[in-house]
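Hey team,

Filing this mostly as a record. A colleague (T.K.) asked me to run one chain through the structure pipeline before their review meeting, and I want the input and output archived in the tracker in case anyone asks later how it was produced. No errors, nothing strange. Just documentation.

Input sequence:
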Amino acid sequence: MLNSINWYDWITPTTPTAAVITGITFSILIAFLVWYESREWKVFFGFAGLGVGVSLIATGILDFVGFFN
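Output structure:
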């Protein structure tokens, strides 16, 4: 299995590594936008943590069912 990232992986990730990196990147972007509105670091880290957690769990489930094969 390739563990590289292609330019089109932000649309549909082709490897679990690309899915995790894309998920974390978008999660941090959304968390920053929420922080910009609230100006509370607790909210930023809460949204970032939830986003990273969901990305990891979703990637694990998709890998388990064979989406990346």
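Quick notes for T.K.: Residues 31 and 44 are 5 Å apart (CA to CA). The two ends are 9 Å apart (CA to CA).
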